[in-house]
């Protein structure tokens, strides 16, 4: 059960409470909540004109000048037609018998039993909407209700709804009205399962007054009492501020009086006792009277805190508040914790044999009090999974049966509401799960035997997740023949290597198993040559893969000229050189072929260059799948063939030059003949 009061506290609203001393703890009334529990501790509401040194800061006209407020949270799980009855004990101001139970004042006497000066008291109950009036009664001073239980209201959530009901209490003028409240039934089924009614206090004061006490009861009897408040996990402040007002130390407290704060882990802190008509202030020490709230500061710790009062006298109003948090006169034993358990696989499925399988098991306290004992058991099938490690490590491991156990995962001070603890488990996949139901092996976590700090045995919880495992077959190479190279020159032949074989893989069945393969042709190319890549997406599972997308980042040395796909939407450009094919749903055994045609561009220098390329496939149900890496080598152009004249046969007649026509005479003839012979030899 979640009280919205806690949510209010988590939001950091600065609500405060005024609490007065009690004699001790008393048994609760069965199937009812009585506040305070049976005994001498009473709620006391003073009028706005009551002297401030009486101790009621909230109602006083010079203090907060407001009404007292008691919150009655009724959870959504409370039976809607179950009537809830609120009774009030001694709701009026009447003191004819002379007790100090109710105090009636006139203008000259601060404590009198003259009923002519008795003031009225009002009790107003509002529905969770904060507007609808459930009941509104003003009680006059009357003997008929003096020291009696009186039915104030009967209602149900079918009429007014579940949530926080507000009981607002006021006393007129300057009297003190002492009263009690009983709510029946607070627990409709007697089981701590979240349908109980709670009673946190917001602006309520108390005073120790034994019911029907004689007029001569001693005022200087000292008592001890412990109040409680709860710090939720959503509290964001690093410290807690704790106040008290008008302790009247040392006048109305014993010499050895003390105030102690006890944290959920048991750490104790000494508090400061306020003096007469003032707030406590550590800088002033015990008995100091600060006009403003200063308070003791302690480090935040989540869970139930105690405020222990020691040796405080009766008939002394004592104000105690944990700023921003609701308070209780006794720790609510009906509050129960609630274990929330989840188990999530954090690695892909399917996974090949030999792959890693990991799970996160998270336990969260969704209840209203801390979990002190939190055992966990995790079971797996050792035929298919081999345990490797866990964080935190288990206290017990039985690999033969596939059992892991943790004795108690709760922190030393308990797993408080809203807090979680996570265990990470790591396994190795051992064998294919193709023959199992659904093709998966199931791993189960169980919390059994959890206990909260109210000693409630919490219901068992289980959570499971699964993984599919397949055997990854060894690729079988099928060589692809390449044409025999033709030498460019008989003197310097150049051969073309055989293309890399394309592996043929026969995968073992898995539930959803899309894969991507890629090949390139040719494996060697020159600038200006075409290179074609062929991609194949195939779902080897028996369940459709959705949101299938294939991407291929083409190297900058290649210009894309054309992309086609047998299914899906194709997009690409020569700026990003990213090819994307959105296939969508790939049915079981469906295959989609994608062809990417490219040309080696002029930037592919200096040769030789090796281009590596890989395609990727993504889908909604699993992790990214990658193709094999395809390589293309860019090589240099072969040099042009240079002709070499064959030597002439021995004994062959010399070449006869063609006849020249000579038109020059004398020495000019010889010179010209020499030039012609030179040109012939060059």
Write a concise synopsis of the structure shown:
With 682 residues, the chain is mostly beta strands. It contains 3 helices and 46 strands.
Key features of this structure:
five-stranded antiparallel β-sheet, Immunoglobulin-like, six-stranded antiparallel β-sheet, disordered C terminus, mainly beta, 39% strand, disordered N terminus, 3 helices, elongated, 682 residues
Describe the structure.
The chain is mainly β and 682 residues long. The protein has three domains: 4-328, no CATH class; 339-470, Immunoglobulin-like, CATH 2.60.40; 512-634, ntegrin, alpha v. Chain A, domain 4 (Immunoglobulin-like), CATH 2.60.40. It is built from three helices and 46 strands. Strands 1, 2, 4, 7, 9 and 11 form a six-stranded antiparallel beta sheet that branches. A hairpin with a 2-residue loop joins strand 44 and strand 45 (622-626). Residues 1-30, 212-216, 476-509 and 640-682 have low confidence and may be disordered.
């Amino acid at each position: 059960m979640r009280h919205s009061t806690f949510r209010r506290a988590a939001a950091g609203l600065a609500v405060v409470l005024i609490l007065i001393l009690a004699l001790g703890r008393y048994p609760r009334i069965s199937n009812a909540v009585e506040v305070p529990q049976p005994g001498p501790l009473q709620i006391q509401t003073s009028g706005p004109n009551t002297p401030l040194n009486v101790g009621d800061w909230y109602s006083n006209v010079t203090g907060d000048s407001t009404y007292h407020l008691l919150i009655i949270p009724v959870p959504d799980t409370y039976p809607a037609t179950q009537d809830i009855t609120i009774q009030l004990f001694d709701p009026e101001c009447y003191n004819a018998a002379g007790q100090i139970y109710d105090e009636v004042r006139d203008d000259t006497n601060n404590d009198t039993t003259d009923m002519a000066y008795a003031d009225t008291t009002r009790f107003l109950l509002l529905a969770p909407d904060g507007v609808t009036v459930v009941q509104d009664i003003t009680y006059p001073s009357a003997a008929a209700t003096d020291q009696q239980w009186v039915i104030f209201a009967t209602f149900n959530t079918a009429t007014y709804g579940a949530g926080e009901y507000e009981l607002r209490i006021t006393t007129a003028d300057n009297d003190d009205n002492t009263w009690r409240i009983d709510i029946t039934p607070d627990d409709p089924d007697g089981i701590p399962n979240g349908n109980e009614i709670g009673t946190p206090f917001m602006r309520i004061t108390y005073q120790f007054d034994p019911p029907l006490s004689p007029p001569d009861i001693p005022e200087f009897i000292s008592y001890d009492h412990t109040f409680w408040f709860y710090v939720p996990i959503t509290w964001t402040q690093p410290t807690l501020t704790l106040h008290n007002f008008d302790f009247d130390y040392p006048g109305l407290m014993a010499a050895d009086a003390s105030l102690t704060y006890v944290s959920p882990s048991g750490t104790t802190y000494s508090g400061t006792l306020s003096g007469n008509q003032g707030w406590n202030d550590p800088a002033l020490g015990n008995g100091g009277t600060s006009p403003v709230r200063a308070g003791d500061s302690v480090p935040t710790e989540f869970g139930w805190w105690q405020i222990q009062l020691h040796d405080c006298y009766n008939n002394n109003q004592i104000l105690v508040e944990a700023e921003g948090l609701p308070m209780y006169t006794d720790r609510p034993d009906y509050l129960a914790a609630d274990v929330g358990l989840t188990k999530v696989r954090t690695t892909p499925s399917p996974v090949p044999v030999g792959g890693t399988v990991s799970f996160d098991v998270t336990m969260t306290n969704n209840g209203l009090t801390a979990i002190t004992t939190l055992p966990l058991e995790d079971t797996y099938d050792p035929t298919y999974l081999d345990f490797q490690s866990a964080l935190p490590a288990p206290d017990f491991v039985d690999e033969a049966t596939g059992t892991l156990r943790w004795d108690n995962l709760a922190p030393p001070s308990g797993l408080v509401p809203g807090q979680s603890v996570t265990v990470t488990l790591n396994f190795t996949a051992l064998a294919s799960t193709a023959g199992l139901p659904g093709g998966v092996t199931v791993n189960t976590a169980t919390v059994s035997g959890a206990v909260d700090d109210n000693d409630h045995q919490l219901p068992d919880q289980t959570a499971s997740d699964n993984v599919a495992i397949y055997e990854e077959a060894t690729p079988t190479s099928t060589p692809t023949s390449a044409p025999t190279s033709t030498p460019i020159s008989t003197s310097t032949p150049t051969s073309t290597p055989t293309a890399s074989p394309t592996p043929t893989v026969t995968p073992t069945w898995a539930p959803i198993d899309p894969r991507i393969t890629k090949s390139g042709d040719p494996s060697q190319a020159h600038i200006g040559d075409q290179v074609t890549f062929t991609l194949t997406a195939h779902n080897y599972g028996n369940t459709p893969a959705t949101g299938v997308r294939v991407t291929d980042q083409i190297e900058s040395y290649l210009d894309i000229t054309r992309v086609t796909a047998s299914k899906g939407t194709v997009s690409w450009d020569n700026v990003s050189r990213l090819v994307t094919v959105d296939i969508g749903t790939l049915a079981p055994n469906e295959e989609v072929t994608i062809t990417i045609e490219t040309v080696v561009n002029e930037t592919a220098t200096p040769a030789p260059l090796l281009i590596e390329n890989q395609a990727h496939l993504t889908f909604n149900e699993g992790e990214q799948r990658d193709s094999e890496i395809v390589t293309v080598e860019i090589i240099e152009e072969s040099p042009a063939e240079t002709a070499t004249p064959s030597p002439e046969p021995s004994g062959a007649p010399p070449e006869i030059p063609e006849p020249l026509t000579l038109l020059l005479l004398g020495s000019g003839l010889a010179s010209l003949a020499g030039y012609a012979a030179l040109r012939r030899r060059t």
